[in-house]
Amino acid sequence: VRKAAGIDFVGLDPSTSWMIAEVEMDEPELGMRREGGGIGPVNRAEGGGPFRVVLTDRHIEHTSEPTLEDLSEALIGAYGTDFGVRSPTWISRFTDMSRQAASYATAVCCWPGTPHTCIPRRAVRASTRACRMP
Could you tell me the pTM of the whole model? Predict the structure, then answer.
């Protein structure tokens, strides 16, 4: 819709990529890491698995969904081992990319009887759409 309306989506390209997951592991090193990310139990009171993992990704651009193999490689890069990572509940990626629409509307178009944000009813023909520039 934004592209069809000719509205730019300006901002900053990503500079960092992160991988986040919920997995089973064998006695991982718990806690935050100085360089970012870390491992923690889902249920802190009981301890044990499953564990939530957040790690920086070596690559910023990705063409596919993250896999258990990708997570294993990231764990080995950060900790020197993957702690027997297995049984992912989910694995995802996110970046620090920042984008925002340059404008939020190019015109206001309403159907008769729609909410008060539209052109007043008396200005609208009974069966036509009303559009006006903001």
Answer: 0.64
